[in-house]
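Notes from hallway chat w/ T.B., transcribed later so I don't forget. T.B. wanted the structure written out for a chain they're using in a teaching module, and asked if we could keep both sequence and structure tokens in one place. Agreed to drop them here.
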Amino acid sequence: MFRGLCLFGCNVVPSRFATICERLLGCGLQTSAHDSQSLSIISVVFPDASLLKRNLELTKRLNSPFAGRWIIVDNTPASDLSITDDSVVEVLPGVAPPESRDRGSLHHALALEKALRQVQTRFVLLLDLDFYVVREDWTSTVLAHVREREIGIFGAVWNPRWFYQYRGFSSVHFMLIDLDRIPLTDIDLKPSIDNDLWWGVINDDSLPWPRLLRETLKAGRCRDTGWRFYRRYHHHLGVNVETLVPHYGSPASGRYRWESRLAAMLPHSWRKYPPDPRTFTRTSFLQQSWPGAYEQGWEEFFWQGSPFAIHLRRVGRSMTDASLDEDHSLLADFLARMPEIQKR
């Protein structure tokens, strides 16, 4: 309840209040044992490395010189990723696929946590390889911003269309953490889907749940990768959190309008659609400049009122099983024309 909302950007605990909480709760800026001038980026490669090269090239192109280290965990089935010609990249062997109903998310989380143990910088960024930041000099700009605002966690929320995921907090798609404010031992990214019996009941197709009731019960319920970290720090009074603003276009249907009116009578945590219009924007930079990508369902994120990132996700298909050929083609064209697009 103490968080402040600001248009096109931030979900931040007021810094004066946070400073008081730091003294009372013992959290906040500690004496640093980290390199505070550079950034560690952590990514997991799975099921293949096709998106890695473009993301690496774009990041280095937009941030020249790139003062950082990119730690890649190779979770590909063959585990034979080799990047020998890039001094900023370190490749770690992947982790064994776990035997769990959460195996996809858990496999990812275990790989991220393995890389976290290798971090020696103050700032670490968890970054999905299909999440592309398109802002010039974003590493230095963001690091300066989080230092100035005393932000502990900065990142991209789940797009509101993934209504069953947690809200108002960074996802592991793009999550920057200040390790002088968040102890490394506090970062538990493992999912808890398999341990949530109620989630299993809600998703049991043999039970005659009405669709609207099922979706209402699922809203914000999924305990996916990063959920434990979210639970620990979403309402932590001593840590400032800021999030990017996602583009979200409400469905243009009579069902949506009817369901929205009904949801207005429910607690925020039970609402399928975004409960607060200040947490998203209907503005789209892809719709005007790159409609093909917009129609593919790529997600867009804004920061400080300007385009910041794109996420190559689509609705209604598996991101690991379906071909990304069309995404690759669109992405190559988009990156080639990005300077032209940014001027519009």
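Follow-up for T.B.: Confidence is low (pLDDT under 50) at residues 1-9, 13-26, 315-321. Might be a good example for the class.
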